[in-house]
Specification:
3 helices; mainly alpha; single chain; 2 strands
């Protein structure tokens, strides 16, 4: 029994951590998108003198898209889920070992 060697492997330590309820650094993407949306709205409102409603909507559209991507396709999902889901939506999501079943390889 003395020949058995025990080592600490930390095999379960794969987490990138959590901040503000988001896995890893996903919150940074949302913060950067929010700052960009505020900057775009400010640019449109102060310097280009568009209406504030238009400026807020124009700034909110990119932020909403990023938020939907982060929360819907990245948060609490496995790695690569967003790319796989987009491939399925584009119609190329079925992989087969048979080359004649794959698109473009037959």
């Amino acid at each position: 029994m003395s020949d058995v060697r025990f080592t600490d492997t930390n095999a379960a330590d794969d987490s990138a951590g959590r901040a503000f309820g988001m896995e890893g650094n996903l919150y940074l993407i949302l913060v950067i998108a929010l700052m960009g949306a505020l900057g775009l709205a400010g640019l449109l409102g102060f310097f280009i003198h568009t209406g504030w409603i238009f400026a807020c909507v124009a700034g909110g559209v990119p932020f909403t898209g990023v938020a939907i991507w982060v929360v819907g396709l990245k948060h609490n999902k496995p790695a690569g889920y967003d790319r796989d889901r987009v491939e399925v939506w584009l119609g190329r999501g079925d992989f087969s070992r048979n080359p004649s079943d794959q698109e473009g390889l037959a």
